[in-house]
Amino acid sequence: MSMELCLLVTQKIAFYMKEIKIERSITRRGEDSLARYLQEISRFPLLNVEEEVILAKKISSGDKAALERLVNCNLRFVVSVAKKYEIEGMPLVDLISEGNIGLVKAAKRFDESRGFKFISYAVWWIRQAILYSIGTHKRMIRLPMNQLSGIMDLWKSEGLLEQQLQRLPTLAELTEFMELPDERVLDYLSNSGDVFSLDLPLEDAEDSPIVNVMTDPMAMPPDAGLEKEAFYINIQRIMNLLSPRDQNVLRLAYGMGGGRPLQNEDISNLMGLSSETIRRAKQKALFKLREMKEVKMMLQYL
Predict the structure, then answer these.
(1) Most CB contacts within 10 A, which of 4, 13, 78, 165?
(2) CATH architecture of 4-140
(3) Is the Cβ–Cβ distance between 118 and 52 less than 8 Å?
(4) Is the predicted pLDDT of residue 79 greater than 80, yes or no?
């Protein structure tokens, strides 16, 4: 990550939890390491609403010390959320690290004028970061080595471009940098955790997690208020611009409407199509969404 604060927090976790083994259950030594980490972060006092408002205003003005304090004083909540996902097969230290990244994002985006307590807002970002990481982990362990190598190159290229551009690169910038055809980069993107990652920016947008908003009724930040209803109406209108088959593929793949997200094989069986056809249909549908002016207009609300 390019965020210095995330790096510092992750290093701190690694220092106190370096003895934790990568396994489903935490050993006694791992528990001791976690206890030391919890002891370290417990020295940061909880903030009241007035203090959060002051810090949020300073953060909006670029105050890094205020950002660090707001994050540090809420690290214990990340641990609480991460513990709920221990059964998903990832080490607790990794879940906490991912949750901390979500916490930093929330701290940077928090709007104190809305009247919400910070952690009520941040818990959405923490949970989404953890769930995204879990999904990526489960998908990655099933990939052949040649695909893993390509995805590693993709991530390396993405990181280098982000440093150069000071923002996430677009798909066109990635394909040009990697000197690969669009289809190959799309293939790596589709297997790197988020099919044709809509977290990649659309043109100049810096952050566009459209899929997250489209797939989870609770996915919009909790301070969205009455704008939610109109937002979801727009989502349905946009989905209707896709073909019925593409709509069905996306709804099944991402669990739209409250269902459980399905793998390509499951969708293949349900729709009577090959897994490869389903994979390409998802790529095609998501590409169409990325190019729609309606979707680009929606980004301003995220």
Answers:
(1) 78
(2) Up-down Bundle (1.20)
(3) yes
(4) yes
Question: Which residues belong to CATH 1.10.10.10 in the chain?
Answer: 145-301
24: CB partners within 8 A, 6+ apart: 86, 87, 89
pLDDT band at 277 (very low <50, low <70, confident <90, very high): confident
Per-residue pLDDT reduced to its tens digit, 144-195: 767 767 877 887 787 788 778 766 677 778 888 998 887 777 777 666 543 3
Return the CATH fold of 145-301. Answer: Arc Repressor Mutant, subunit A (1.10.10)
Across 227-266, b (16+ Cβ under 10 Å) vs e yields eeeebeeebeebbeebeeebebbbbbbbebeeeeebebee
Task: Return d(Cα 200, Cα 295) in angstroms, integer.
Answer: 13
User: How many C-beta atoms surround the C-beta of residue 208 within 10 A?
Assistant: 22
161, 162, 163, 166: CA torsion to nearest 10: 120
User: What is the distance in angstroms between the CA of the first residue and the CA of the last residue of the chain?
Assistant: 21
Q: Which is more confident, 147 or 127?
A: 127
* Residue 201, pLDDT above cutoff 60: no
The burial class, CB within 10 Å (0-12 / 13-18 / 19+), for 56 is buried
Q: Identify the burial level of 46 via C-beta atoms within 10 angstroms of its C-beta, where 0-12 means exposed, 13-18 middle and 19 or more buried.
A: exposed
pLDDT (0 to 100) of residue 107 = 92
Taking alpha carbons only, the member of 290, 279, 294 closest to residue 237 is 294
Output the pLDDT for position 25: 39
Spatial CB neighbours of 263, under 8 Å, sequence gap ≥ 6: none
Contact in structure between 228 and 220 (CB atoms under 8 Å):
yes
Where do the CATH 1.20.120.1810 domains begin and end in the chain? 4-140
Please tell me the predicted confidence (pLDDT) of residue 281: 85
Which pLDDT score, from 0 to 100, does residue 153 have?
81
